[in-house]
Structures are given as C-alpha cells and as structure tokens.
Amino acid sequence: MSIPQRIQEILDTIPENVTLVAVSKTKPNEDILEAYNSGYRIFGENKPQELTRKYNELPKDIKWHMIGHLQSNKVKYIAPFVSLIHAVDSFKLLKEINKQAAKNERVIDCLMQFHIADEETKFGLDINEAREIFNSDDYKNLQNIRIVGVMGMATYTDDETQIRSEFKNLKSIYSTLKEEYYADEDGFAEISMGMSGDYNLAIEEGSSMIRVGSTIFGARNYANK
Ligand SMILES: *Cc1c(COP(=O)(O)O)cnc(C)c1O
C-alpha cells in the first residue's frame, strides 16, 4: 500500500472528529510530498532542527505539529511557523514559547504534556504542577500562547489493560482541568493520545488527536530515531 492509501485507510476507520497527525520524523521529503499531493496537510515532527529544515523545503500550507520534547533554547527556530506544540512540560518552556510567539506576532497553540506512563524516561507534568502554572499570575499574563488541551504517551507494553488505564487517566486529567480552568473556553478541547500501536484504544478512551508514524510511513531506522 502507498503512503496516501495508508492515510486514507486510517481516516476511513477513525471518527470524523479525531485529527490524524501524520508523524514524518526521520522520513524524507519525498514521503511527505506523496502524502501532501494526495491532499494531506497535517504532519508531526519531534526534533526542532529537522522540523525547521522540512518547513523550509516543503510547501508552506503544511500544518506542522511539534510532537516531541522541546528544549527552551530551540523554541525560537519553530516559533515563526509551528501550528501546534504538543509537549509543553514546564512553565519555563511555556513562557519561552510565549516570548518567541510575541516576537513573531503570533499566538501559538499548545498542549500540556502529562506523565501517564509508568516509565521514568517519559516527560510530563502531573495535575498539581499544571494547577500551579494555571493559578499563577505569570500565566494569566501570557498573551501569545493558547492552551488547547493535553497530551500523553502510554507505556510501551502489550498490556492493553494498562494502556487503557493510562489513557483513562489522561482523559480524567483533561476533564478536571476543563472544569477547573476552561469551563467557558471552547478552545480547550484536545486530547492528544494514541500512536501506531495503540490509537484505536486511545480513541475508545476519548482521544481527539492521534499521532501516527510507522503505520503510515513504515518502520523508522532506529539509528536516527
Ligand atoms: C514517533 C512518535 C509518534 C509516532 O509513533 P509511531 O509508533 O511510529 O506511530 C507519536 N508521538 C510521539 C511523541 C512520537 O515521538
């Protein structure tokens, strides 16, 4: 099956209100263009440098999502064009995004990343850390970012029960924050969860945005993962 066919197959099986982010990290421009020429516009990358290079080389109406861990000192490279930043995991990072967005006279949409896996290595906040951010006066003064939801990554395991419970946890964090801080804001609407191996489970548990790489573009070369 071709790349556009694999994208279409996923789109045919997911609900209409779920956004598919085609994760093109490590893949060449030709692969992205194949998808682009079939009409697809939403792509995800996890490294600022690679993302910036692809932005420069590819058509400008692509919506680029930064899905990976982002260091504050790299925000400036993607701030001019990025369409959604998925993995905001500190107040420091959020403030830097705001600063760089202001320089570019933009408002940048962001998701707060939560730690839901039982793996030490995955980044993310817990709900009290998010509350501390949202309660602070500093946060209320950020005019150039908009928090549009939450993001999380489940543990890499075959145990469906565990994955499901981690997704349930993220959904519940979303609902709690929605009620406490965003009850009147329609903009706080996204739950980014689910990848190639678990996106169906994620959708069953309330995902509104799935990030799918290898199922669309094929396995990645682990040497440059
Ligand atoms: C690579 C990556 C994905 C996609 O992973 P696949 O298993 O290839 O679908 C999703 N989310 C994040 C944050 C990633 O880094």
From TrEMBL:
Residues covered by the Alanine racemase N-terminal domain: 5-220
Keywords recorded for this protein, A-Z: Pyridoxal phosphate
Claim: Nuclease is one of the keywords in the record: no
Tagged with keyword Transferase: no
PROSITE patterns listed in its UniProt record: UPF0001
N6-(pyridoxal phosphate)lysine modification, residue list: 25
Pfam families from the UniProt entry: Ala_racemase_N
Family under the similarity heading: Belongs to the pyridoxal phosphate-binding protein YggS/PROSC family.
Function: Pyridoxal 5'-phosphate (PLP)-binding protein, which is involved in PLP homeostasis.
Protein name, entry field: Pyridoxal phosphate homeostasis protein
Organism listed in the record: Marinifilum caeruleilacunae
